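Aim 2 progress update. The chain analyzed this quarter is reproduced below.
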Amino acid sequence: MIKNIIFDFGGVVITLDPRQAVKRFSALGLPNAEQHLDAYTQTGIFGALEEGKIGIEIFREKLSALCNKELTHDECLFAWKGYCIDVPERSIEALKKLRKQGYRLIMLSNTNPYMMSWAKSKDFSKGIDKDCPEGRPAVDYFDAAYLSYEVGCMKPDLRFFEHVLSQEGINASETLFLDDGKRNCEAAEKVGIHALLTVNGEPWQEKLKECLDTHNKPASSC
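Predicted structure tokens:
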């Protein structure tokens, strides 16, 4: 029986476009931007920011050095937001429906303070949530959120998943994880969590329904 559903943020709740992010960082003057950026797990100063090893000011200073010019906070924010190309209405409606059905919804994301400053604002779903046209923060659609830069580790590190299970006090066998990264799904399964691999930009709602129906199907009586 599935009682808890853990969602990756980028690539599941929102649609990612790494190419747009690369273009924006390149426009700032970052050499070989595509080598610094990844759709799933960042490295270098980008990884250090998402793992909470450095804060946004240190990141801005180091990125400025790489770009050989002084960058502003807003320029860094604009470049990071290049990752998000769309917040599908279908994602918002599905999350609301699942909560009404009684599932505990949890966000688990490799992310950073720049992206979450937007995601934690009403701009996240402004004009998208038909029940709340003024918009709501992404975290309002979940019962809990675990962010890499706050936890101090990133997927596919097993400790990230173990931390969520421990903090939530939930059973892995009663938990389903959605992610568009194969390695992340495999990591979740290693700690006993059921996993559903999705595709960035493609609807996952029907696959999720089928998965839940399968796991929650009553045992046939003898």
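The chain has a mean pLDDT of 94. The chain has eleven helices and seven strands. These observations will guide the mutagenesis experiments scheduled for the next reporting period.
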